[in-house]
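Morning F.,

Quick status update on the modeling queue. The single chain you submitted on Monday has been processed. Sequence for confirmation:
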Amino acid sequence: MSGTYQFSRGVQNGTIGGNSILATWAAPNALIQQALGRPLSAGAATKSVNLIQAGTEYGTNNLNQLDLRASKRFTIDRYHVRFDFDLYNVFNSNWPFAVTNTFSTAPSSGWLRPTNVLQSRFFKIGGQFDF
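Structure tokens below.
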């Protein structure tokens, strides 16, 4: 018998902050022009603004994953047979590997919508025959 337990805090975002929640907002030039009193340079239509600093907000999406293995070996004369049974993601959580970080005030906003989740619970049966 063997097992592996893995705990990871937050969701993966591939940035310096590691496993944290991000919110990037594309601020329109019209809004920035009101605040600055001038338009964006180089005729840009939007400016990307980080609303949440990386590494400060982790949310409640923590990974708790348990994988188990049972293996039995038999010897018959000079032959060895091993049977394996592996069970992955025993807790069957739908933990998000990554979420959408683009923030928007639009009704169709996808902010924090999962883009990739942990695979479902599954098992594998295997064996080995040595002669």
